[in-house]
Structures are given as structure tokens and as C-alpha cells.
Amino acid sequence: MAATNETTTFKPKKSVSLSGVAAGNTALCTVGKSGNDLHYRGYDINDLAEKASFEEVAYLLIHEKLPTTPQLKAYQAKLKSLRGLPDVIKKC
Questions:
Q1: 10 Å Cβ neighbour count for 72?
Q2: Are 45 and 66 in contact (CB under 8 A)?
Q3: Which of 83, 81, 80, 75 is nearest to 52 (CA)?
Q4: Neighbouring C-beta atoms of residue 37, cutoff 10 Å
Q5: Cβ count near 48 (within 10 Å)
């Protein structure tokens, strides 16, 4: 019997039986509401990625709205105070 170099790869069949079925509801995000998209608290993830800082998005997820400038500064100061870094580095 001759050996062959052909290999058969198994491709599992994609299940579509649960397509369109909600896996759960959350106020934090929606997935696929208008196609192939992701929204955090109503904001498109692409817009947030382009225009918002990490701290702004974290604030949005926790407080349900984007921060004002004073709120953002206070939140950044709070996060900085919670870091486990030496004081000399925190002052930078």
C-alpha cells in the first residue's frame, strides 16, 4: 500500500440554530444591534477607541455617562491614588 501525503482537515459545521437568540441582557453593552457592532452604554466602540481615553471609557462603564473635564480629572486622581507605587513615582 502506498503512503499518501494528503491530509484531511476536519471543519466543524457552524451552528446557526442559536443565531439571533439573546444570551443575556446588560446595560453595559450591546453587540450586533445594527449589524457587526459593539456599543458601550450607547456609544459605538469605534468612536470611543478614536476619541476617548481608557479612563473616560472606564468612567462611562461605571457611572453610565462620559465624564466632564472636572469629573475626569478627579477620577484620574483617584485612580492614581490607588496605585501601589512609591510616592516619588506618583508625583511624576
A1: 16
A2: no
A3: 75
A4: 12
A5: 19
Could you tell me which residue, 25 or 44, shows the higher pLDDT?
A: 44
- Cα torsion 65, 51, 39, 68 to 10°: value is 0
Angle between helices 54-63 and 69-82 (to 10 degrees): 100
Supply the DSSP symbol for 20.
Answer: T
Q: Are 28 and 61 in contact (CB under 8 A)?
A: yes
Are 40 and 60 in contact by the 8 Å Cβ rule? The answer is yes
44 Cβ neighbours under 8 A, 6+ residues apart: 37, 38
pTM of the model: 0.63
Residues in the chain: 92
> Distance (Å, rounded) from C-alpha 32 to C-alpha 5?
43
